[in-house]
What does this fold into?
Amino acid sequence: MILGRHGYETAVAGKNGFVCAVGRSWDLKKDNPAFWDPKIHGPICLSAPGARSFLPIYFKKTELAIAGRSSTQIEDAIVDGIAKGELPTPEPGSVSYMLSKQGYLNAGIKGPWLPHVMFFVPEIDPKALGSDLGDDVPLDAHEEKIGRYTTIDVPVSKWSDGTPASTDAH
It folds into this structure.
């Protein structure tokens, strides 16, 4: 999918239910200083369950961001949509792949972060997964309170082009 003037549009239809797009800054938490940073771009490919249950929330955020809503208004609309059952929570098998060197996810990191796979699961305390144990646990987990899910990021060793990922800067 590509971002057009009025939201995301299908550029090429796939055959397996996966959806790939480039995420933008308005998917960050509302108090993140980079919420409106136009440089933020994260190439992401979602499994079919991830596309069905993650993308509707992301598309709603995009619609509201394009309409000029504030970060607080966007968050409130998502919370309300989930509470009313108009927006989904993660389905089993909701996975995304962020393996492109072309991403720019954070102004504090020089270049792309590590290639990683993300699992979207129902809310669970990230500490229960060991994400606070430092470098001994090869994952990062964080709760997405407004979306009522937890994201588990697992770094992998290679980029999408097959080159090895360097962890020196991270």
